[in-house]
Amino acid sequence: MNDRVKHIFIWPAFLLVLVITLFPLIYALTVSFQTVRIVPPTPARFVGFDNYADILANARFWGAIATTATIVIISVLAQYAIGFSVALALHHNVPGASLFRVTFLLPMFLAPVCVALIAKMIFHPVLGPANELFSMFGLENLPFLTDPNFAIAVLIAIETWQWTPFVVLLMLAGLQNLPAEVFEAARVDNISAWRRFRDITFPMLLPLSAAVIFIRLIEGFKIIDTVFILTGGGPGTSTETLTLFAYNEGFKKFNIGMTSALSFLFLIVVIVFGTLYLAGARKLTQRYAQ
After folding, report:
1. What's 171's DSSP letter?
2. CB neighbours of residue 288 within 10 Å
3. Cα dist. 206→53, 86, 202, 227, 284 in Å?
4. Nearest Cα to 110, choosing from 165, 72, 151, 154?
């Protein structure tokens, strides 16, 4: 009887969530094989894989992939390195650790749009505090937001600053759940702090590290708000990410068919990238486990 009651409540909710999830997905997939424009309004026309072929032949699409991958990979690696280091310091109860724990988490609670607006003021080419600091030392203003390399570097710095606390939070939780007996035995055997980290701490936290990096990689690929506010994808299209490219196609050109196809290609890119990462992480974890 209890099982029947359980299924009475579970199945309607499950079917509702399934319909809400699947309908937009199936509809978007259908639209991706059509040419659909809102402005000017044109009737839908089936074009097969033409939308996909046009995107794959578009150099702007491949440039967006390269830009997105550059920002995501470098920023996530920096987040992990800095976040793990900070978590280790907090775990060993450095002076003021309680204050640092609260302070380091603050950037994560700020809206990316707010962070981008603040950064846009800081890195303003003329009035920004960053260039004011350079001027104080007699240096020339740097084109932080008008030079492609500087603009990408600024985006990487902002992503690193805002999302490193996420890594700190999870890695600190992992460090606090490691068995203390193992480290006490290592100290009794006079094993150095570096060897304890290399041979005990890092291998034991490797599965968590792989999960944290994977989460940040997937989340990082969705970056749009920071880029939209800070550079708008410029100069030119040098900082245009995949999500911003899709936004421009859908909400500026109103090319819904092309945007739907682009969204599914984006999904394929993320799946391929995620699969390759998980395969590499599994091999690395197995090697350390041996």
Report:
1. H
2. 13
3. 40, 17, 6, 31, 9
4. 165
Is 71 exposed, middle or buried (CB count within 10 Å of its CB: 0-12, 13-18, 19+)? buried
Tens digits of residue pLDDT in 197-249: 888 889 899 999 999 999 999 999 999 999 999 998 888 889 999 999 999 88
Q: Does the predicted model carry a pTM greater than 0.85? A: yes
How many C-beta neighbours within 10 Å does residue 160 have? 21
* Angle between helix 256-289 and 2-31 (nearest 10): 120
Architecture in CATH for domain 51-289: Orthogonal Bundle (1.10)
The string of pLDDT tens digits covering residues 120-135 is 999 988 888 988 888 8
| Cα torsion through 38, 41, 44, 45, rounded to 10 | -120
- Residue keyed to tokens 């570096």: 194
By DSSP bridging, strand 34-37 and strand 42-46 are antiparallel
Cα–Cα distance for residue pair 246/260, rounded to 1 Å: 8
Sketch the domain layout of the chain as residue ranges. 51-289
